[in-house]
């Protein structure tokens, strides 16, 4: 028996060895499957400095950064960088690069490429502000990059993980910027194949991708299909594999459909009801609090998001570092709303106007729910709809009283949103509200320049509570990201920063 | 006046029309409130970033300067570059032409294939059941919204009985014919009622005329009378009706393009308006205007060829 056991043991040992040898071999098999996305946005450019949601998911399959956001969206992991060290004064960051990375044109990734890319990103008129703390970038050896910051700067790694800091070959591989972005070269799992503006963009597998065995797919195509129904028909009819952003109201019927899977991914995104503090009535904190209490978040969630979102308790969206789930926020309570209004100069009621985007069903439904509850506390709210682009211009010019707005995080660190959204330094008068609280400004600055997580956490917890008490905006709903895909697709995942990596996805 | 002089005169008349349109288009595009920078930089752009971009795009210059630059480029055969994706406007429009052209052509052909036999059927016996039935079609057909017809066709012939692709334009020519069928049918269902009404009316009018009566008296068969005398004369009036409606369709095609995810010029126009992509909006409008003027020209020319009295007038 012993010998038999031994034989069996030897057999399994051999099997294990064979498996470890064979598995990577089979994983290296050439990529198969052509995946088709349908989406309501048209691709515009490969230039990360000009990236908006229409283009950046596609850019991210071609370009990679030194770091990238983790799956839970709360941190970053080294990507093209292997590791980093920080000097004692916290101003000098030294990065070691991976040595096995090649660009899709075959040339190896070097520190010179990183320096070129980061310098270009910092000088960028689009997203250059992300790098405002970077003083200089040096490339002392082929695999070492040294970044000096102008002051202590906690969010540096998060900034490096932002799409704006994508790594490209030095001097665009000898091309002009315009030529390069027509046929870009990156280190990502996919390379550019074909673009028909207004129709589709196709990427194919990067055969020399540095992660062994990846990508699994032969090609990925993003088709621009603006009509919600048509996208759903295409998915059901097998003409598409993944539908980006199906309407929340269709999720139940999609979940019931055979062969279709629905993904409801937590998002680092928030919707807000913004107040223009220049309007006399809205400069009164009690009026703002009254309105915040009158927002029936559960009803909005049910009607607009089919119950898939969550009522918001903080200016920061969940899924962002330092988001405080215990922050009291302001929740729906008509009694408290009436009490707040009674404390203000407007006891007898007042008239206000809400600016919304015409044709936007979410805005229209939110507006009418809000109108009904405000009426109960004596506020007569009129609704003014403007074409989306006009609405945004009116908002920026601060020629509105109240409007609906939102935010999706671009980096894992809360600093980007807080500096931009709350302080005068952000350049937008606190997200076009004219809010300005010295204590909040100081706490935001403290969180930005301190590298101690405890100090930062304390600062950001204070900020979240204070802006809720000031009812600087009413925080409404945290909507999820919605996707639907064919059950032939596996491995598709969207992180809270709205980023997905197609190298992990398989078809068939 | 010879036929050629007539053609020349009509071509010359196009020039002032197009010039007038260029001014109107430019003025209207710049009158729309909104800001291209808003789309390009996103909602969160600061004033400073917007200023830099506006300078880069050249839209910080006075309107008159911008108009002359636009006309100057136009005279040099360029419609400019898209703000949104930095592609040449001419190549963007030309890239969409096959889609729109085939869709339009398919729609017109199917409309004729539907309208012709039905009108003959109806006109052959006035007041009979078949006439009443055909006369009901325009009422039903014109009452249905394009979106609804398109969606119903997709549900029935794309998903329930998957005979046709639900959307897209295909790669090869047979694929394109295949995928263009449902959208063309959508157009035909909406266009053919107009044709049926006009064809039937003019056929009935001609059937009552003296020369048809004479032909009947001479013992010529009904089939031959319909083919030689009635149809040829009835088509003259319908060509004009068809022409006007094709010109009208070019503008309204965007709905069909949207439902069937065909990226033709109609959807290019709508996208560009919401993006405030001025060069494209100007380019596409000019191109639409050109097509409308051209179609009305061709209609008149066909009319003139069918009815020599037009040229003399």
Report on the structure:
Chain A is of the alpha+beta class. Helices cover about 35% and strands about 25% of the residues of chain A. In chain A, the strands form 7 sheets. In chain A, strands 8-9-10-1-11-20-12 form a 7-stranded mixed beta sheet, with helices on both faces. The longest helix of chain A has 26 residues, at about 1-25. Chain A is globular and about 75 Å long. The model of chain A is unreliable at about 20-30 (pLDDT under 50). Chain B is mainly α and about 325 residues long. Chain B folds into 2 domains: about 5-75, no CATH class; about 90-300, MetI-like fold (Orthogonal Bundle). Chain B has helices at about 5-30, 35-40, 45-55, 65-75, 90-125, 130-145, 145-160, 175-205, 210-215, 220-250, 255-260, 265-275, 280-305, 310. The longest helix of chain B has about 35 residues, at about 90-125. Chain B is globular, with a radius of gyration of 24 Å. The interface of A and B includes residues 197, 225 and 426 of A.
List keywords for this structure.
heterodimer; A: 508 residues; alpha+beta; seven-stranded mixed beta sheet; 16 helices; 24 strands; B: 313 residues; mainly alpha; MetI-like fold; 2 domains; 14 helices
Report the sheet-strand fraction of chain A. 15-25%
Sheet having the most strands of chain B: none
Q: What is the CA-based Rg of chain B, rounded?
A: 24 Å
Strand line-up in the sheet with most strands of chain A: 8-9-10-1-11-20-12
Oligomer: heterodimer
List unreliable stretches of 5+ residues of chain A: 19-28
Q: Largest inter-chain interface? A: A-B, 42 and 46 residues
Shape of chain A: globular
Number of helices of chain B: 14
- Helix- and strand-based class of chain B? mainly alpha
Q: What's the number of structural domains of chain B?
A: 2
Our Rg estimate of chain A from Cα atoms comes to 25 Å
């Amino acid at each position: 028996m012993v010998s038999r056991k031994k034989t069996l043991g030897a057999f399994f040992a051999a099997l294990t060895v064979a498996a470890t040898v064979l598995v990577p071999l089979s994983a290296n098999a050439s990529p198969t499957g052509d995946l088709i996305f349908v989406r309501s946005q048209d691709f515009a450019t490969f230039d990360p400095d000009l990236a908006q949601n229409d283009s950046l998911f596609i850019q991210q399959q071609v370009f990679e950064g030194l770091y990238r956001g983790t799956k839970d969206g709360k941190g970053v992991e080294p990507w093209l960088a292997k590791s980093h060290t920080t000097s004692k004064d916290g101003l000098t960051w030294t990065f070691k690069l991976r040595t096995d990375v090649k660009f899709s044109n075959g040339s190896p990734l070097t520190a010179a490429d990183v320096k070129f890319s980061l310098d270009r990103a910092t000088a960028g008129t689009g997203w250059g502000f992300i790098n405002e703390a970077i003083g200089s970038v040096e490339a002392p050896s082929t695999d070492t990059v040294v970044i000096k910051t102008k002051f202590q700067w906690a969010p540096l790694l998060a900034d490096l993980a932002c799409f704006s800091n994508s790594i490209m070959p030095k001097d665009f591989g000898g091309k002009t910027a315009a030529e390069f972005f027509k046929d870009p070269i990156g280190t990502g799992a996919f390379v550019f194949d074909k673009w028909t503006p207004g129709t589709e963009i196709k990427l194919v597998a990067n055969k020399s991708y540095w992660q062994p065995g990846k990508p699994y797919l032969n090609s990925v195509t993003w088709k621009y299909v603006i009509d919600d129904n048509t996208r759903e028909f295409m998915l059901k009819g097998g003409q598409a594999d993944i539908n980006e952003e199906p309407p929340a109201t269709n999720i139940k019927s999609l979940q019931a459909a055979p062969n279709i899977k629905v993904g409801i991914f937590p998002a680092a995104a928030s919707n807000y009801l913004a107040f223009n503090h220049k309007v006399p009535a809205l400069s009164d904190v009690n009026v703002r609090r009254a309105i915040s209490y009158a927002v029936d978040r559960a009803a909005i969630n049910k009607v607009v998001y089919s119950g898939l979102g969550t009522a918001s308790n903080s200016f920061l969206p969940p899924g962002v570092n330092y988001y405080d789930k215990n922050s009291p926020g302001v929740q729906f309570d008509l009694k408290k709303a009436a009490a707040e209004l009674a404390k203000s100069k407007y006891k007898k009621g007042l008239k206000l106007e809400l600016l919304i985007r015409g044709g936007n069903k979410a805005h229209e439904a939110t507006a009418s729910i809000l109108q009904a509850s405000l009426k109960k506390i004596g506020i007569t709210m009129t609704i003014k709809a403007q074409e989306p682009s006009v609405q945004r211009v009116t908002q920026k010019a601060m020629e509105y009283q109240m409007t609906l707005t939102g935010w999706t995080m671009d980096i894992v660190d809360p600093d980007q949103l807080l500096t931009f959204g709350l302080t005068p330094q952000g350049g937008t008068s606190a997200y076009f509200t004219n809010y300005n609280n010295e204590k909040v400004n100081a706490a935001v600055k403290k969180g930005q320049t301190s590298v101690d997580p405890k100090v930062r956490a304390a600062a950001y917890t204070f900020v979240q509570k204070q802006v809720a008490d000031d009812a600087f905006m009413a925080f409404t709903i945290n909507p999820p990201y919605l996707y639907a895909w064919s059950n032939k697709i596996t491995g598709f995942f969207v992180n809270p920063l709205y980023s997905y990596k197609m190298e992990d996805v398989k078809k068939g | 006046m010879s036929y050629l002089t007539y053609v020349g005169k009509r071509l010359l008349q196009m020039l002032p029309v197009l010039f007038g349109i260029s001014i109107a288009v430019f003025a209207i595009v710049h009158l729309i409130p909104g800001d291209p920078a808003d789309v390009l930089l996103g909602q969160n752009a600061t004033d400073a970033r917007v200023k830099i971009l506006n300078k880069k795009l050249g839209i910080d210059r006075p309107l008159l300067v911008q108009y002359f630059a636009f006309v100057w480029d136009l005279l040099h055969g360029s419609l400019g570059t898209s703000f949104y994706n930095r592609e040449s406007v001419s190549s963007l429009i030309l890239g969409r032409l096959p889609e729109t052209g085939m869709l339009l052509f398919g729609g017109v052909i199917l409309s004729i294939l539907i309208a012709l036999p039905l009108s003959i059927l109806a006109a052959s016996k006035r007041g009979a059941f078949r006439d009443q039935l055909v006369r009901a079609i325009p009422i039903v057909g014109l009452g249905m919204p394009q979106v609804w017809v398109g969606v119903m066709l997709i549900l029935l012939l794309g998903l329930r009985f998957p005979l046709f692709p639900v959307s897209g334009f295909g790669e090869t020519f047979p694929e394109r014919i295949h995928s263009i069928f449902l959208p063309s049918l959508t157009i035909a269902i909406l266009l053919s009622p107009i044709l049926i009404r006009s064809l039937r009316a003019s056929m009935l009018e001609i059937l009552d005329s003296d020369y048809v009566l004479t032909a009947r008296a001479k013992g010529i068969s009904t089939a031959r009378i319909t083919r030689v005398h009635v149809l040829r004369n009835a088509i003259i009036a319908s060509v004009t009706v068809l022409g006007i409606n094709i010109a009208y369709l070019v503008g309204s095609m965007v709905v069909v393009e949207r439902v069937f995810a065909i990226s033709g010029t109609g959807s290019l126009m709508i996208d560009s308006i919401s993006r405030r992509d001025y060069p494209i909006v100007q380019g596409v409008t000019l191109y639409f205007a050109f097509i409308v003027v051209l179609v009305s020209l061709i209609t008149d020319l066909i009319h003139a060829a069918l009815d020599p009295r037009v040229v003399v007038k």
